[in-house]
Design a protein that fits this description.
Layout lengths: L1 H26 L11 E5 L14 H20 L12 H13 L8 E7 L2 E8 L2 H12 L6 E4 L2 E2 L7
Parallel strand pairs: 3-4, 3-5
Antiparallel strand pairs: 1-2, 2-3
Length: about 160
């Protein structure tokens, strides 16, 4: 009787774990290329909404795979990048840009996230004033490994999120 009960409990536990795994897999963003998630660099404006992590459907991932392979091959054949292409160092670039913004005193009153894909850096979040946006762009452009900067942060009126 005891063996049967422990076997039943084990089976139920395995089913629960499998269901939890399936549910968790559906709930998490699909990131088939292991692109770095947005990193929060500053926290000076309360309640600034965090950006969503980029996610792809299986069809989008398939289409993007073709583009990534094409870009990487062309870049390598032209002698403009190493094998692995422009995506290879995105996590490192993301961390460097995030640290540079976090350590810059002019940006202490902002809330910013940094997202890097293919050496293209996107800055998202909330600014205290419009001038900061231009200064952030100039600061980020000067960092090694950055090809292009997209500024998507917005000025938060009176310190409130947009």
């Amino acid at each position: 009787m005891r063996n049967r009960r422990s076997s039943t409990l084990r089976t139920k536990a395995l089913i629960a774990i499998a269901l939890y795994g399936a549910i968790a897999e559906c709930a998490e963003p699909d990131n088939p290329y292991n692109d770095p998630p947005p990193l929060q660099a500053t926290r000076g404006i309360a309640n600034c909404p965090a950006p969503r992590q980029r996610s792809l459907t299986p069809e989008q991932a398939r289409r993007e795979a073709h583009q990534r392979i094409e870009r990487g091959t062309s870049c390598w054949l032209a002698g403009q990048c190493e094998p692995g292409g422009d995506y290879k160092h995105d996590a490192e670039t993301n961390a460097r840009v995030s640290a540079a913004l976090a350590n810059h005193p002019r940006f202490a009153n902002t809330t910013l996230w940094v997202e890097t894909l293919r050496k293209f850096v996107t800055i998202k979040g909330c600014l205290a004033d419009a001038q900061q946006g231009r200064e952030i762009e100039a600061t980020v452009k000067a960092i090694a490994g950055v090809k292009l900067v997209w500024q998507e942060a917005v000025v938060a009126p009176h310190g409130a999120p947009p």
